[in-house]
UniProtKB/TrEMBL annotation:
Keyword match Transferase: no
Domain ABC transporter: 4-237
Superkingdom to which the source organism belongs: Bacteria
Residue stretches in coiled coil: none
Family: Belongs to the ABC transporter superfamily.
The keyword NADP appears for this protein: no
InterPro entries tied to this protein: AAA+_ATPase, ABC_transporter-like_ATP-bd, ECF_ABC_transporter_ATP-bd, P-loop_NTPase
Protein name: ATP-binding cassette domain-containing protein
Amino acid sequence: MAILEVHNLGKNFINHYLGTTRQAINGISFQLEKGQFIGIVGKSGSGKSTILKSIYRTYIPNQGNILFESERFGRLDLTKATERQVIYLRKHEIGYVSQFLNVMPRRTCRQLVEKAVLEMGESDFRAKCQAEAALEHFELDPSLWDTFPNTFSGGEKLRLNIAMATVKKPRLLLLDEPTASLDHQSKEKVREVIEKLKASGKTLVGIFHDITFMDNLCDQIFNMSTKPTIIKAGVRNES
């Protein structure tokens, strides 16, 4: 059974000042099995981030369904989930990794990851152990653990973002332009991190500009062309 099914998804944005409506996405459909990685590609403005933010429920779609196989709630349509359900899913089942680092000031790298564990009701000891294991797993230098991340490089900030998201062990992880504005060496580090996530059995949805970055990385590629298409195992089918 698919862990995520997106059916005929559509989202419009209204500019009340100008009295206009802009269609961001329309007729988006795909599904994802547990442990798979689907990469969404397309030019800027094609609606890639809108899809991710609709799954995370930052946006509420105007049409369609997003069916998620939740451990707690069973098969749940995220477009109709209550605010209480959304809060729970964000804490325990669906993680979101942005290209930007938006964290509380005056908290160290270690404290930020520990806080993510504590939010799940774990003890201080468990939070400390799990935070250190995550930071080590994603190859953040121990010399950075007790420093403030505002001085980190783009690649280091991204790895911290991923550590904070994955330490909660979400069933589904959303990656929003994780390679944007990174140099080649940092992109390679990000690729290694994604390979580790895949090897651990994590289910992933990621959006990218660079389709070459995704070679041999994704199980499916969703191309945001004029007529969106799924490409899988070298076979191109209309979605």
